[in-house]
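User: For a reading group we're discussing how well predicted structures match intuition. Take Armadillo-like helical domain-containing protein 2. Before you show the prediction, I'll give you the sequence so everyone sees exactly what went in.
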Amino acid sequence: MASPVGMFSVQYDRSVYRCVVWLGQCLRRFWNVHVLGFFGKQEEEQIPPGKNIFHKEKIRVLGETLKNKLLTIEERAQAAHQLGLLAFTGGPVAGRFAAEHMKEVALLLQDAQAAPKARVLLLQSVACWCYLNPITQKRAKFLKLVPILTAMLKPDPEPAAGGSASGGLLVKFWACYTLSVMTCNNVSYVEELREYYPLKHHLQALARENWEGWPENFAEVLYFLIGFHRH
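Assistant: Thanks. Here is the predicted 3D structure of Armadillo-like helical domain-containing protein 2, as C-alpha cells, for the group to look at:
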C-alpha cells in the first residue's frame, strides 16, 4: 500500500512556482484563522495603523519581559508570542525590531523545563517573524533554529504510565508548520534540511498522525517542500 507521503507527492508534483503560491496561500489562511483569530484580536485592535514608534516601544517592553529570567517560562513565552504578533501585523519595521529578541526564543525552545504549551507559543512567535520575511529568516538561520526545530521532530520515548503524549505531538505539529513557513520561499533552508537524513523518516511518521483540525498535513507539506519525495 502506498504511503500517505507517496500519494501526496504524486498529487502535488508541480512546478516550484505553483508550490510556493499554493503553500503561501495555505500558510496565510491557516495563520489568519487558527492563530490570529484566537490569539491576536486584542493585539491587532491595539495597534494604530502606521504607528511604528508605538510598535517599537511596545516591542521594547515585551523584549524586557522575554529576557527577565525571574519570570516563569510561560510568562516569557507569552511575551514572545505577543512580539511575534506585532512583527506579523506591524510590517517590516516592527518585524526588524522584534527579530532582535529571537535569540531569547531560541534559548527557551531548548529549555528542558518548557512545557508543551509554552513551546507552542514560542513556535508561533517564530512563524510570525519568519513568514515571507527574508531578513528574519536569515537571522533565524544564524541562530541555528533549523537544528533546534528538527530536534523536536524526533520520536519521543514512551510516556510513563498515566501520561499523555498529546502535548508533545502538538509541539511537533507546530514545528512542522513553522519549518514550512521558513522553507516555502527560502532555498537555503531547503538545502540545509536535506542534510538532516533522519528527518525524512520523522516526517513520514508524523504524516501518519491525525491532523484533524488543521487545513493541511504540514508533515507532508514539509516533506514535499524539501524534495524528499524525489529520492
